[in-house]
Specification:
Elements: H1 13-16, E1 35-39, E2 42-45, H2 46-91, H3 96-103, H4 111-119, H5 128-160, E3 185-188, E4 191-197, H6 202-217, E5 222-228, H7 237-249, H8 253-262, H9 269-278, H10 283-291, H11 294-307, E6 316-319, E7 322-325, H12 330-342
Parallel strand pairs: 4-5
Antiparallel strand pairs: 1-2, 3-5, 4-6, 6-7
Helix pairs in contact: 2-3, 2-5, 4-5, 7-8, 7-9
């Protein structure tokens, strides 16, 4: 079947005249009902195309939407900064440059700071004394930029409390994930943190202390949900996930979860049973569960639903649907949680 893009069809004009894109319309801004193609007399809408893309490569579509959001958020920050600086400069009778000069005070770079930059610069052919003036200039510009950004953030906070308050409605893409009845859950709150993880994944192990700190800091405000996502490259990941589900049946998933990550090099079947005994599980019941096909079958059903999502790696964290793929600094999780709590 040939796909024919038709710019003008007289017989279809009454139906589609108000819903066709122009050459300058980005598809990301078109209403879902906009017709973007006609094949054999049948229209293809933006919604139909997006559904088709999602069924073939949901992760790429999500990544593109995330990139678009990141770009817009960055540019919005620049726009807000420029407008607020201009308004503040007018209010005090100065130019923007004069205002910045009057509010930002930076001292000269210290020898320690310059040496730190030099020692952390790879493949430099210059000796320290030759590079020193360039490093000093770099640090001055860096401090000035940081001071300017800090001042703008202060103006933004001030603008949000003004009689005509600043309001930001730009929203990030969100991945909606259902919490299944069998999913382990810890904590409660308006912010839902969903973790796609693998007991044999070293980066999943490294993120655990971060998640524990977050749950402590935001106690009563964050709910932690576990989703199995054992990777094929880890031979013990599936048995460990099944064993953890058996511990979950006895109400001790999180204790077993901690034992597995604390002993990540010991995830073979014998070790999994030893970990069960170490946290006080009923071993006979655990063995019966581990050796049965019921838990494996239920876990397979959960994995089938997970595989339809745009999740490719572990750990992947969703905070109210906002995706963080891979290990990120503590500050990244905190920033997103704070934004979600503020919303």
């Amino acid at each position: 079947m040939r796909l024919v893009l038709i710019a003008i069809l007289l017989w279809a004009a009454p139906v589609f005249a108000q819903s066709r894109p122009t050459a300058t319309d980005p598809i990301s801004q078109l209403p879902p009902t906009t017709v973007i193609a006609i094949v054999d007399g049948e229209p293809i809408t933006v919604r139909a195309l997006d559904e088709y893309v999602t069924s073939h490569d949901a992760r790429q579509l999500f990544d593109l939407n995330q990139q678009l959001f990141d770009l817009r958020q960055s540019m919005l920050g620049l726009m807000l900064g420029e407008r607020l600086l201009k308004a503040e400069a007018i209010s005090v009778g100065k130019s923007v440059d004069e205002l910045i000069e009057s509010v930002i005070t930076i001292g000269p770079a210290t020898e320690e700071e310059m040496l730190d930059v030099y020692n952390n610069t790879q493949q430099t052919a210059l000796d320290y004394q030759t590079a020193r003036p360039m490093i000093a200039n770099f640090l001055e510009r860096k401090k000035r930029a940081e001071g300017r950004e800090k001042y703008i953030q202060g103006l933004i906070r001030k603008a949000k409390k003004a009689p005509k308050p600043l309001a930001i409605y730009l929203q990030p893409p969100r991945l909606q994930v259902d919490v299944a009845p069998g999913d382990p859950v810890k904590g409660s709150g308006s912010v839902e943190l969903v973790e796609f993880s693998d007991f044999e994944c070293p980066y999943c192990q490294k993120v655990q202390p971060v998640l524990k700190q977050l749950l402590t800091k935001y106690d009563g405000r964050v709910k932690h949900v576990w989703k199995d996502f054992p990777l094929g490259i880890h031979k013990n990941a599936v048995p460990a996930a099944v064993a953890a589900r058996c511990a979950h049946e006895q109400g001790k998933f999180w204790e077993y979860h901690d034992a597995l990550f604390a002993n990540q090099q010991a995830l073979e079947a014998i070790a999994l049973r030893e970990h069960a005994g170490s946290i006080g599980l009923d071993i006979d019941r655990f063995n019966g569960c581990f050796n049965s096909g019921s838990v494996i079958s239920r876990r397979a059903q959960l994995m089938t639903s997970v595989e339809k999502l745009p999740v490719r790696s572990t750990p992947t964290i969703l905070i109210n649907g906002r995706m963080i793929a891979g290990l990120a600094p503590m500050e990244t999780y905190e920033r997103i949680i704070e934004e979600e709590l503020a919303n």
